[in-house]
């Protein structure tokens, strides 16, 4: 047992930390192992490596052999070549069968004191359907669990053309995709008055122009919750003042300004390196006579 | 009236079909509609090809009819057809068309800017010349001034055309 264990530790070939108790056995066992290795190599050098026989099943046509499965079994002499896995591990696992019954003490007079009780009992109910029917909502996940995809043409640093919204036609730099799947995008603000904003993938044309944004660090608090539109909805049942308290005008918070500055400074530095890119981002996209979108290469 | 004829050795440009855009030499005529054709230096195997898909070029090679591919290749390389073809206006037009089709959005912007600058310079010089001409009509003035504005105009034009070409070639 101990010998087998030691052999098992050595077989992976790693230097086992020297333990004192099997220490004496180790040098004794190392030698036969080395001798065996030496014999193996010598054996290999003397005998040739066993060549694999060519296919014993001549081909009649593609995919069709001359002999059937049973004939091939006999021809390959598989009746002589039945290999089984080494038994030690199987024996070990067999011994590790979980307990099927347990004896429990039972109270009361003249009851025999204990009962043998099954640990895993047979089910007391068998349903009529083998596979239970699926719920109507099977496979329908809520939005938060949906798979988000991103077009291969959109990578961080790509120049996108916005097609909808108040910034339609503007060329804008893509930063990253947010958790809901929307794209985080920035003008930058000084270039074309587009702030840090979300854009929808479907309403955007991805051009092949890329800005190298590899080193730009985008603050981690820019998430969907940060960009979500806020609406106050708690009127205190006073019809006179309801329409005033709700947000009429959107005011730019200081945090937005500081975030914009932080991101834009990094992006602008990269943009200035590419000639004419700043002017390109300032211009807007438009179609004119003879320009057909399906023929354009973006 | 006709300057290019179908003859043995005529180099033709294939306009459509699987080998569109390649050059080929006519080796032999099969019948009214087809020719035996070979393009060893342009990757076209020796085959029959209808005349309809061929457009004749100005180049003629010298080899006997039904000459084998080796002879056609020798004649082709001796005449240096590939280089001559690349120098023709025809080939350059094709190349320019391809480049225009491949232009990305950014390239189109750069071309637009280059064209704008060029046109501005040209207009400026034109206006100068017109001014001179109108002044001349009123008073007989020196013709020297009309020469000077032409000189800066030409290098300006050359620079702008180079920029336009560069912008077109740029991100390829």
Record the SSE blueprint.
The complex is a heterodimer of chains A (298) and B (172).
Chain A: H1 2-10, H2 25-46, E1 59-61, E2 64-65, H3 69-75, H4 87-95, E3 101-105, E4 114-118, E5 158-162, E6 171-177, E7 183-186, H5 189-192, E8 197-199, E9 204-210, H6 224-227, H7 242-245, H8 254-273, H9 277-282
Antiparallel strand pairs in A: 1-2, 3-4, 5-6, 5-9, 6-7, 7-8
Chain B: E1 10-14, E2 23-29, E3 34-39, E4 44-50, E5 54-60, H1 69-79, H2 81-87, H3 89-102, H4 105-138, H5 144-169
Antiparallel strand pairs in B: 1-2, 1-5, 2-3, 3-4
Helix pairs in contact in B: 4-5
GO cellular component, one term (chain A): endoplasmic reticulum
GO molecular function (chain A): RNA binding; structural constituent of ribosome
Subunit structure (chain A): Component of the large ribosomal subunit. May bind IPO9 with low affinity.
Query: Rg of chain A, please?
Result: 38 Å
Encode the helix/strand succession of chain B as letters.
Answer: EEEEEHHHHH
Instruction: Give me the Rg of chain B, rounded.
Output: 24 Å
User: Architecture of the domain at 144-229 and 277-285 in chain A, CATH level 2?
Assistant: Roll
In CATH, the architecture of the largest domain in chain B is Roll
Organism (chain A): Anhinga anhinga
Biased composition (Basic residues) (chain A): 45-55
Keywords (chain A): Cytoplasm, Endoplasmic reticulum, Isopeptide bond, Phosphoprotein, Ribonucleoprotein, Ribosomal protein, Ubl conjugation
InterPro entries (chain A): 60S_ribosomal_eL6, Rib_uL2_dom2, Ribosomal_eL6_CS, Ribosomal_eL6_KOW, Ribosomal_uL6_N, Translation_prot_SH3-like_sf
């Amino acid at each position: 047992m101990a010998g087998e264990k030691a052999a098992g530790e050595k077989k992976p070939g790693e230097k086992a930390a020297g333990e004192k108790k099997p220490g004496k056995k180790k040098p004794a066992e190392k030698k036969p192992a080395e001798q065996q290795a030496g014999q193996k190599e010598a054996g290999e050098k003397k005998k040739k490596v066993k060549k694999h026989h060519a296919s014993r099943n001549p081909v009649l046509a593609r995919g069709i052999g001359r002999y059937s499965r049973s004939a091939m079994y006999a021809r390959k002499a598989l009746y002589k070549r039945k290999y089984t896995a080494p038994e030690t591990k199987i024996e070990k696992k067999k011994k590790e069968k979980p307990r099927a019954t347990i004896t429990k003490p039972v109270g009361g007079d003249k009851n025999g004191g204990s009962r043998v009780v099954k640990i895993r009992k047979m089910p007391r109910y068998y349903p009529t359907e083998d596979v239970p029917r699926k719920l109507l909502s099977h496979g329908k996940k809520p939005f938060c669990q949906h798979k988000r995809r991103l077009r291969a043409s959109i990578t961080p640093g790509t120049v996108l053309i916005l097609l909808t919204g108040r910034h339609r036609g503007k060329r804008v730099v893509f930063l990253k995709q947010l958790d809901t799947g929307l794209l985080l995008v920035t003008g930058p603000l000084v270039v074309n008055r587009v702030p840090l904003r979300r854009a929808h993938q479907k309403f955007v044309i991805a051009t092949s122009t890329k800005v190298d944004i590899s080193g730009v660090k985008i603050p981690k608090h820019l998430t969907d919750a940060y960009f979500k539109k806020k609406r106050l909805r708690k009127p205190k049942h006073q019809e006179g003042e309801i329409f005033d308290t709700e947000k009429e005008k959107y005011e730019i918070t200081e945090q937005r300004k500081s975030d914009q500055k932080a991101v834009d400074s990094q992006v602008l530095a990269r943009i200035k390196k590419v000639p004419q890119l700043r002017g390109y981002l300032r211009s807007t996209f438009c179609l004119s006579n003879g320009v057909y979108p399906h023929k354009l290469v973006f | 009236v006709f300057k290019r004829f179908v003859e043995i050795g005529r180099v033709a440009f294939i306009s459509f079909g699987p080998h569109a855009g390649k050059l080929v030499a006519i080796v032999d005529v099969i019948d009214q509609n087809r020719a035996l054709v070979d393009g060893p230096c342009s990757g076209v195997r020796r085959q029959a090809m209808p005349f309809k898909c061929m457009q004749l070029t100005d180049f003629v090679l010298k080899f006997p009819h039904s000459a084998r591919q080796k002879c056609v290749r020798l004649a082709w390389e001796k005449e240096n057809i590939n280089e001559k073809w690349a120098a023709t206006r025809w080939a350059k037009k094709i190349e320019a068309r391809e480049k225009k089709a491949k232009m990305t959005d950014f390239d189109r912007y750069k071309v637009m800017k280059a064209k704008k600058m060029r046109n501005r310079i040209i207009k400026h010089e034109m206006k100068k010349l017109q001014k001179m001409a109108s002044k001349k009509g009123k008073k007989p003035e020196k013709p020297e001034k009309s020469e000077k504005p032409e000189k800066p105009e030409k290098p300006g034009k050359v620079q702008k055309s180079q920029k336009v070409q560069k912008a077109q070639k740029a991100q390829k």
